[in-house]
Each structure stands twice: as structure tokens, then as C-alpha cells.
Amino acid sequence: MNFNLIRFIQAAVSNGAPLLFGTSGEILTEKSGNLNLGVEGLMFMGGAFGLAGVYYYDKAAGDSVSVVTATIIALLCAFAAGCLGSLIYSFLTISLRANQNVTGLALTIFGTGVGQFVGEYMRTTSAGSGGFISVSNTLKEGFIASPFPKAMQGIPVIGPLLFSHNFFVYLGIAIALFLSWFMGKTRKGLYLRAVGESPATADAAGISVEKYKYLATVIGGGISAIGGVVYTMTIAGTVWMRDGLSGEGWIAVALVIFCLWRPINAIWGSVLFGGLMLLYLWLPVPFIPSQIYKVVQYMVTTVVLIIVSMRQKRENQPPASLGSAYFREER
Amino acid sequence: MDQKTIDPKHIHAKEQAVDMRGITKRFGPVVANDNIDLYVNKGEIMALLGENGSGKTTLMNMLAGIYMPDEGEILVDGRHVTINSPKDALACGIGMIHQHFKLVDVFTAAENVVLGLEEGGRLDRAEIAAKVSAIADKYGFKIDPNKKVYDMSVSEKQTLEIIKVLYRGADFLILDEPTAVLTPQEISHLFDVLRAMKADGKSIVIITHKLNEVMEISDVVAVLRKGRHIKTVRTKETDPNALTEMMVGHAISLDIERQSYDKPVPRLTVAGLCCRDNEGVSKLDNVGFVAYGGEILGVAGIAGSGQKELLESIAGLRHVTSGSIIYTPDGRVPMDLVGKTPMEIRDSGVALAFVPEDRLGMGLVGGMGMTGNMMLRSWNRGKGIFVDRKSPEKMAKEVYKNLEVATPDLDFPVSKLSGGNVQKVLVGREIASSPSVLMSAYAVRGLDINTSYVIYDLMQEQKMKGVAVIFVGEDLDVLLELCDRILVHCAGKVSGIVDARTASKEEIGLMMTSIGGEEAAGE
């Protein structure tokens, strides 16, 4: 058996990177008490708009294209698309107090549709591309290259494990660490958690529930959407694939539960899930169909849920007001 | 600041901390507060006294920024203020401790205290804990700043709520029914703390309906009744009897024609009944009484003194810790209802019509029509896997006809009917099962006078059929007119059972607030 653990972990890390963004963003959202089931749609939008930004930039810049500029454009386009999508969600659920589940599912359908439209539009209208779009090789290689010098990547074991990943992986880890610090150590983070746990308490304490919910949901949606562009830029090799992102958003939602709403857990959780998703390629067992492999991550999530509910630790429960709208004068 | 260093001369006795002028608040057609003028002096403890629904909490919620007054103005320290939110209230130095604590369960005491504060800098938990301890020491609280709220007792949570508003620099504190959930020892400790705060120059309003506490802690008493401010008196110059009269008002004749049923038989014999709520607080303590077939037994008491628990215990919906409920049906052997399932109890002829605050919460399914709701009592009948829709439909038709329920058709969702009609459906369904014990709680809650009379007539009708009717009510006038005997509840105990034909409202009012009605009267 030619199973190479280090290479498998490398693959798991890069495969988990989109999940890391999707999950971190959704944790931020859910900590405010909003259950945004539209992550799938947000990631589609992020993937499509991010790719569009880079594609048109690439076309315009020609040979003078810069990887750094392209990365910034990709991130900004995806983030903006995600913010816009979750702004719709926020307006419906926070201001109009619509049902969060229904709105989230609608956002998934909407976002998937918009993403598909943008992607397919680019694919079918770009002349001379032979039916698929992609960016120049400079960018392609730039996106998957490690930001660390070759010498560091060359260190045995540690090099490939720690320094060989693409820039987005490190950005994702930085975001997760930042969110973890923000929620655990800062006042604003404490207030945000209070809003998600008990909006009435937060309101009575003078915290603007609406403001926190809007900000957390919109920024969280933006972060989730970056996961989509990370997928198209690295895993998909900047090629738009119709169904490439399918399911990523849902796995991210499951991963939020798996991580017990802690961003720091999302770092290793996304690597684990990224690995589980690839297991069928790396450890194929002849008589097990690949579909079985694909449900492993959901089975792991279920097992974690069972263990957590058996231990009944209050800190491991979802934010208490998750899924319900808040209205001060409700009697 | 040490409380001994405060010179009493600095506290001007007549200086007003808060002045409310012409406050009116409506909820739809209901006027909760009607043109109320009320002021509170600095360094005084005011007791805000009134029955349930008299508008005490609503009035104070407007100071706390939960509600906005529809009319009227509020002055704090002589300045006009607009209080739009709890934040504004705190900026004016007003802090309210709500009956339902507003705390985040998974946070520590210290984390709860700093919620929403616009203090700069990072979250230094050790520093906050030290500050919390300092406040606690100053007024004699006991609290562990690092304890999680979900590990706290009710009393500790209340302490935390008070510290929370003190930390924000509030010097006007409102406590909504602070003693309702406390043990006597905790109450006396709370009162010590309140006195220490008063000595520190803070003004305090206690919302309550317990007369003995009013007499013990307050400097002035303001009485509200049915949304109106009746009077403000100095505690020293009044007594519980006078306060009761102000609180319940003078009798208005209702003229319910009370009929007599000549051969009452014991139907339900309750003895030594005890039960606890989910938090382990005792709700019924050694309750005993006999309900006769052919009489209406009224149950009076301040809300939350165990009326709901009593009915639920009899109906089998609540676990009884000790005691017995002997039910004697006509021509059958007596049986103990304790330990029976709600279904067995219902099938043996004990019916419960409970109207909760939100009317639909218990007993009816809002989205279903009358027929569907009738089926809730017979869903397990019918052949095989099919439900029997015919007989509930017949029952719905009867209720519709007999009680004149205004509904477009029998499948129209009951949640869209008016309150009175919803209650008719609920009570009608229970009566239609021809029970031999009929329990109803707040059956006329929120109803206009005519609909109320329909319900009263129904109760009378059942009584004349030999049914033992247990009627939990809020309005003492109605209880006195309608019932044969009245059981008065006080804090989960039976304060006494009086004959409704001879008892007076004042007598019952005193019994509601103290066991046997003697303690407060004797002071």
C-alpha cells in the first residue's frame, strides 16, 4: 500500500481550507443567535464572484498580472458577495423577523443560482476558451504556492506539514485564531455571545441587539463566502465547475456543530473533515463504495453530538437563542 | 464610602428622585396605566402595591426603558427625560431588577455584571471580579464573582441582578416582586441590604402585593388598582386593612343569581397535598379541602401562590410529593387520583379547563378548528388506526350552538377567534365531556362582562347538575357572588376556607396575604 501520511495530511489541509472559512464565518453568525443555513449559497456566490474578479483582472492586466493583487481582488469580491447575501438574510430575519430556517434555505437556493449564473455566464461567453474558463498559469501557480521560502518548506516532516500550504490556509487559521481571541477575550466578543445566548438580557444591559446581529451575520457571511473562492482558486485550479462546490456549505454547517461553536476547533476540525472527504481516494477498500466514505463526516458529527449531549456541559451547547428572532416588546 | 460617614442632612427628605406625570400606557384596547402621577423621594423605599393586572410592572417598565409611555412625562432629578431603552434608563441612574432575571446562564457573575458597559480597554476578568466583590462587601451581599449563573440559586441570581445595576451606578432601583421566590431567611437578608442601600442615599421601589413586607420595609406606599393610581400614603400612617381596601376597592354588585343545590355530596377529598416546581421550590404545602358535588368552590389567592399547581396535581399533570386526592364518583368506589395518568383521571370524570395568560398555551391548538380541538380529548378512540371524526364534530356543533361561539365554520382556526370565543370552546369542551368534577382556572380572563356571564351561567348549570366545580378566579367580587365557599391560598398553603355568602372582601384580601389573615391584621 503506497499511503503517504504526510502527503495525505497536506491534501487534507488544502481540502479543508474552504471548510475552515465556511465554518469560522458561520460560527461568528451563530454566536449572534442567527442560524444561517445559507452557507452553501454564500460559498457559491463567493466562488463565482471571486473567480469573476480574478478572471477579468487577469484579462485586463495581461502579462503584468500580479499574484498579490489577484489574491486581494479574489478575497474582496468573495467577501463582498458574501456580505451582500447575508445582508439579505439579516434584513429578513433581524428586521422583519422572518423564520431563520426558511430564510437560510432560500439563501442557499438563491446563492447557488446566482453563483451558477455568474460562473456559467463567464464560461459560455468567454471567446476561444473551449467551453471552460481559467486564468493564466502565473496566477494558477501563484494561488497554490506556499508563501514561505523554499528552504523552510524543505525541512523534513515539519516543512511539508507546516510551511507547504497555500496562502489561504494561513489566512483561514489567522481568522479562526482572531475570532477565538475576539469571542473569548474582548468585551465586544462577550457582548456578542450575550446577544446569542439571551438577547433580552443583552438588550436590558444596553447592548444593541440588532447591531450585533447584523454585524456578526454580515461579516460571518463574508468570511463563509471566502471559503468558496478558496475552493475555486486552489482545489478547482481556477476552473469554474458547475457542481464543484456542492455540499461544501452543508459540511461547514455540520462542522460548526462538530466544533462546538469554537473557532479554534475549526482549525483541526476542517483538516479532519477535509481528510475524511478525500479518504476514498487515498485509502480505497475495494468492496466499500465511495458513497460510504462520503457519509463518514456526517457520522462523525452525529457521534460528537451524541457524546456532547451525554456530557451535558452547558458551555458545549449551542447559543441559547439560536434560531429565534428577538422582539423587545413581545409579551 | 462607608455608610456611617453619610450625613443624613445631605439627603433632602423632600427631594424627588423620579417624578412621573400623567403617564398612560395602552396595549391595544387595554389601558394598562391610566393617567398616573407618581413621584419617589430620594433616600426612600416606596412599595408599589396592587393586585395582579393593576399595572404596577407596566408603570415601572416605562422607567426602565422596556416600554414607552403613550402619554405623560418623566422627570429624573427635576429634569425632563425621554427613556427609550434600558440603556437610557441606566444613564438616568435607574436600574430595574425584573421578576424574570435577565442573566446569561453560561457566563460567570462578573461577566454578567459588565455586559453592555462602554468601559474601554480589554476584558480584565480579575479586575472586574475585584470590583464586584467590593460592591458586594459594601452592602453586605454574598457572591462569588467567578461562579457561573447556571450553578446559582434563585437568591444568588437576584443578588447578582442587584449588583449589576449598582455596578452601573444606579441610584434608583426598582425591584419587581423581589421576595416571590425567596425563603424567609433570604428575604430578611435582602431587606437588610435594601436598608443599607437606603442609608447610602439610594431610592428604591419595590413592586409587591405582600402587605406584611410593605409594612416592614417601606417608607411610603403607592397603591394602584386597575391601572389607576389610587393613593400614596406614608407607611407609618396606615395599616394593612386600609391598604387592602385601597388595593381591592369597594364592592361593585355583580348580581349573579346564586342558586342552592340542596343535597351536596363529598366528591373530591384532598389531604396533605404537597408538590414542588421544577426548581425544587415548594409550591403546595399540606393542602387539604373537600369539594362537594353541587357546589362551586372558589379558589382565591395572589397569582403564583399554588392555584395552578393545585389544579395540575388533581388533573395528574404534576408530580405530587405527598398527600392524597380521594375522588368519590357516584355509585362507585372511591379512588386515589395520585399516581394515575392524566388520561385515567380524565376518563374517570375529572375535567380541567385552564386558561393560561396567553389563552391558547394550554388546552387548545391554535391552528386547528373547533372539531380538531374537540378531538384532542378523543384522539385515541375510533376503529383501528383511523380516528373518529364524527363524534367530535357532533360535539363541536353542540358547543357551537349552546354557547353561541362566533366562528365562520367548525374548521376555522381557533387562534383567529376572539378571546371570548376561544375560552368558550375551551370551557365548552370540558363541559361536554359531562364531568363530575369541573376545574376551571381564570375562565373569564380578559373577557368582557357579557361573555363572562355566559361562563358563570355554565358553571352554575354544572353545579345544579351535581358537579363539583372548582373555580379559580382573580376577581374577588365575582368569587363572592358566584361561589358557595371560597378556599383562600397564601404561598402554597390553605389560608382558610370561608363561606362566600357571609365573607367580606377585606377578610379574603387579608387571608390572601397572610395565613389565616391574622398576622398582618395584628400588626
Helix and strand topology:
The complex is a heterodimer of chains A (331) and B (523).
Chain A: H1 5-31, H2 39-61, H3 67-95, H4 100-125, H5 137-144, H6 150-153, H7 158-163, H8 167-185, H9 187-197, H10 199-204, H11 209-235, H12 248-258, H13 263-282, H14 290-294, H15 296-311
Helix pairs in contact in A: 1-8, 1-11, 1-12, 1-13, 2-3, 2-4, 2-11, 2-12, 3-4, 3-11, 8-9, 8-13, 9-11, 12-13, 12-15
Chain B: E1 16-27, E2 30-41, E3 45-49, H1 56-63, E4 71-76, E5 79-81, H2 86-91, E6 94-97, H3 109-114, H4 125-139, H5 154-167, E7 172-176, H6 184-199, E8 203-208, H7 211-217, E9 220-225, E10 228-234, H8 240-248, E11 265-276, E12 282-293, E13 295-300, H9 307-315, E14 322-327, E15 335-336, H10 342-347, E16 350-354, H11 370-375, H12 390-402, H13 419-432, E17 437-441, H14 449-464, E18 468-472, H15 476-482, E19 485-490, E20 493-499, H16 505-513, H17 519-522
Parallel strand pairs in B: 3-8, 3-9, 6-7, 7-8, 13-18, 13-19, 16-17, 17-18
Antiparallel strand pairs in B: 1-2, 1-4, 4-5, 9-10, 11-12, 11-14, 14-15, 19-20
Helix pairs in contact in B: 8-16, 12-13, 13-14
Structure notes:
- The complex is a heterodimer of chains A (331) and B (523).
- With 331 residues, chain A is an all-alpha fold.
- Chain A has helices at 5-31, 39-61, 67-95, 100-125, 137-144, 150-153, 158-163, 167-185, 187-197, 199-204, 209-235, 248-258, 263-282, 290-294, 296-311.
- In chain A, helix 3 runs antiparallel to helix 11 (209-235).
- Chain A is globular.
- The N and C termini of chain A lie far apart (66 Å).
- With 523 residues, chain B is α/β, with parallel strands linked by helices.
- Chain B is built from 17 helices and 20 strands.
- Chain B has helices at 56-63, 86-91, 109-114, 125-139, 154-167, 184-199, 211-217, 240-248, 307-315, 342-347, 370-375, 390-402, 419-432, 449-464, 476-482, 505-513, 519-522, and strands spanning 16-27, 30-41, 45-49, 71-76, 79-81, 94-97, 172-176, 203-208, 220-225, 228-234, 265-276, 282-293, 295-300, 322-327, 335-336, 350-354, 437-441, 468-472, 485-490, 493-499.
- Chain B is globular and about 70 Å long.
- Mean pLDDT of chain B is 82; it is low at 1-13 and 519-523.
- The A-B interface holds A 185-187, 189-191, 193-194, 197-198, 200-207, 314-315, 317, 320, 328-329, 331 and B 27, 64, 66-67, 85-87, 90, 98, 102-107, 111-112, 114-117, 119, 121-123, 148, 150, 164.
